[in-house]
Amino acid sequence: MRRALPLAITFFFGVFMVGEFFIPHWIYREFTAEFLEWGLILAAAAFILGLVNLIQVNLPKVLNRDKDWPYKLIMLGALVVTLAAGIWGGEHNRQDPGQLYKWIYDFLFVPLNATMFALLAFFIASAAFRAFRARNLDATLLLAAAILVMISRVPMGESIPFIGDYLPRFMNWIMDVPNIAARRAIFIGAALGAVATALRVILGIERSHLGGEG
Prior knowledge:
mainly alpha; single chain
């Protein structure tokens, strides 16, 4: 019963929500909209569970002085301060630039986020250096396309004799035709994978979301 009931609920609501794309009746749409509202409520509850799990995982490590415990202490302290600043004052506090919550977001979170992306740029450059080695035909094509795009995007590329005027056009063709075609293929593959996973969950084939056997 512990397995059959969740699988039955998943199957019913999964098939019901899929029916929204095939049954255009307004009463049916009202039911699906109501279920979506409950889904948002459950998603909000999942954030609360994530908050509790974050505290349960990191607080014992701080109390036991485990490895990197000062960083975990700073994280928990930032969590408490941000949570308190967001709750205090309601919606007005989250929009007013002079309030603590907006100050934390604008002058702490945004600069730290930019710093993280700046550090990721070095990892991307390192990965590109390893990937752009012309060991085979595919890597050679990737290397040639990357060089052409990079040269075309800087003023130096336009000043190259004879081909400088054609480089931006060729770069735009690479970005608009092969690049978009590859991106769409990836998106289609990801969508088919998502549909296959959803069908496995609805039909009860995929049961990892139910937890362990014990």
